[in-house]
Each structure stands twice: as structure tokens, then as C-alpha cells.
Amino acid sequence: MIRNKRLEREKKTLKVMIELYCKAHHNAKELCSDCTSLLEFAFHKLDKCPFGNEKPTCLECTIHCFRKEQKEKIREIMRYSGPRMLTKHPFYAIMHILDKKRK
Questions:
Q1: pTM passes above 0.90
Q2: For the chain, which residues make up each domain, given as ranges?
Q3: pLDDT in tens, 43-66
């Protein structure tokens, strides 16, 4: 199903970004409990996303899924991981850029 593919890719992208951040900032080979909780919450929100396949990027979304503290943490993670995605995981980075251009 296309809807599932789009959201599953979104989940994989988010997971990779959180892993990059956690590894660099929490010196862990696996996700720490805080990062795991944030990832699980984000996955839950993606599963419930009313936009489905038409989901915009978080920056352009009209629905605010995260509370203030979670939103700040996700932004911090994205600011750190975003630039590194092009070299570490170029497929997900390019797909995210294409998703931003798609309207």
C-alpha cells in the first residue's frame, strides 16, 4: 500500500536521525531510554496521522503532534542529524527533500 510505504519511510528516516543523535550525544551503541521513548511516541503519532500518504514534512504540517518539550528535542535532533544524513543515509535525505518539494 502506498500510504504505508510513505509513512514507513518517514519512520525509518526519523529512526536513523534519532540514532545518529543518540550515538553522538549519549555515547550509546543502542538508543538510550529517552531517545527510545521519543521515537516510540513519534511512531505512534505517525501511525495516527490523518494525512497518511499526503503527510507534509513536520516543518510544514498544520497539526502539532508534539508537546513543547518534545518539539524542542526533535528540532535539536533534526538540526544535528539533518546535515549528516546526506553522507550517512543519502536515500532518506534525498527522499525527505523531495517530500518537502511535493505539494
A1: no
A2: 5-100
A3: 999 999 898 878 888 778 888 888
